[in-house]
């Protein structure tokens, strides 16, 4: 696959007289793709049924004639005001019971059938008009599901849909009472109609109730997306996609992704470092204008799995954004670095957000490739350089990594439902695992709990899998030479009860969780030989040998043939030890990477990506600051 570049464009924001020149400039820059349409409903249909699509016809034609491939967005993330007047109860409701008002975007509840019907209607109108248009080469459905905390809604529509969903899941109210343990505190129900949404209770609602609601909320996103997929499939052969976000776990992306052809995501490295990561101030300062060296790669690898190998960056940060607490500019070279890094991880397309900075409304401080007065912004020059890099690079073929991590959205829902220890976070645990592997020079694949190919990896890490069970254990051990579970693995059943066979309930490892402790963030439990566990400790017994121990001789890591259990949440130093032990066991070589330098192997190349502002020497190569060195692998496929 030969990677390409693109840009997000809003023709409705600019006089039509500018479109042709914009299109020519995009093509001259070397961009191949342009995404349009996703927020333009009020211009497509200013009043119910009053369609104005002639401008969109001309915009698509202008862009297509300039040689650009169009990604057409369905505009359902921004229902116009009249849609709300028609469906006054379509608004999402927050946990406090307040309806979220009109005046920005994403003001809809995923469960409102009237709104879903409006979305299907507008998607059908667009599909009928543009489904066979030769310039429309892909479709984006909606925009960033879940953005601005919009997955979970406590609306009357959600309540009605939840009761129905529960009746299909449990069949009878007796089965639900049993599964949830509602005898506790006399919470038993006589009918599904008595069940409320789990908020505004006096103290915590039953965790089984909350987890069911979280599953339901995820299913509603899947169903919402599927409604538009179903209508577009019959009207176009172009691929369907959605643009996911960074560190967003409220719905199961694997399930949404299963209905789509390509996964895309929106990468804002500098914004994410300042508002989406728990890292120390020194790290934030060192990478203030570059972003965290692992955050982008983590999501590239995750969304490669969500897209079953096909993925893009749909929105790439081009300069300062408007939405983080502070918004520094990328250092020179970073826009190109982020683009090449995405390509190294398998992106088919990297598309910048946005073409020209808007002079009005909420995002007027958000940079684009052009300034509002139409002059080139620094990112335009870097995009052009990246085009040259990609021409020199040719095709990039992905190779299966030797190491994989299982990512499970439902585990995050379980943990947030009953944290047990403040500050203990599923994403953070998985991210720490990923960082340790990247520090050791490994390329990493992600896996869902349902798609674990047989005999494919040397090591699979499955940190913090809330529910395991025999089938998943078998898949994990059949997928690799060494599966590493824990901490907090096999801790609950599907209905949030302690499993009958105890925790973690593994058949391949004689180990039992006797006690769970959680620790405050300033306390760590040292492990003999170096490193420590933080936040969460599973106190283990059982005959499996201790591979690492705490000072009191209890196990920090237990292991037998092909399966290990990690009995605490490792800090950085302990993660490095665990990765080194695992590599040794599985016959893999650790390549210790300097701070800020990362390595990505494809079938035919090795990319050395330097997030530091200064040059770094590694393995005989001098990699400039904010730069990427690309080495040919010879012979292909071998390290
Ligand atoms: C994304 C969103 C875009 C734009 C951008 C600003 O979350 O999809 O529409 O708001 O952020 O950084």
**What helical percentage do the residues reach?**
25-40%
How is the quaternary structure best described? Answer: single chain
Distance between the termini: 21 Å
Give the overall pLDDT as a whole number: 97
Structural class: alpha/beta
| Strand count | 24
As for the CATH topology of the domain at 403-586, it is Rossmann fold
Describe the 3D structure.
- With 639 residues, the protein is α/β, with parallel strands linked by helices.
- Among the domains are: 403-586, Rossmann fold (3-Layer(aba) Sandwich); 597-632, no CATH class.
- It is 33% helix and 19% strand.
- It has 18 helices and 24 strands.
- Helix 5 (113-130) runs parallel beside helix 8, helix 8 (207-233) packs antiparallel against helix 15 (409-417) and helix 16 crosses helix 18 (572-586).
- It is globular and about 75 Å long.
- It binds beta-D-galactopyranose.
- Beta-D-galactopyranose (GAL) binds next to loops.
Task: Describe how the helices and strands are arranged.
Elements: E1 4-8, H1 19-29, E2 33-36, H2 41-44, H3 54-65, E3 69-73, H4 81-86, H5 113-130, E4 136-140, H6 156-170, H7 173-180, H8 207-233, E5 240-244, H9 253-258, E6 262-267, H10 269-275, H11 281-286, H12 295-306, E7 311-316, H13 334-344, E8 349-352, H14 378-393, E9 403-406, H15 409-417, H16 426-439, E10 444-447, E11 457-462, H17 469-479, E12 480-485, E13 512-518, E14 524-526, E15 532-541, E16 546-549, E17 555-560, E18 563-566, E19 568-570, H18 572-586, E20 597-601, E21 605-610, E22 616-618, E23 621-623, E24 627-632
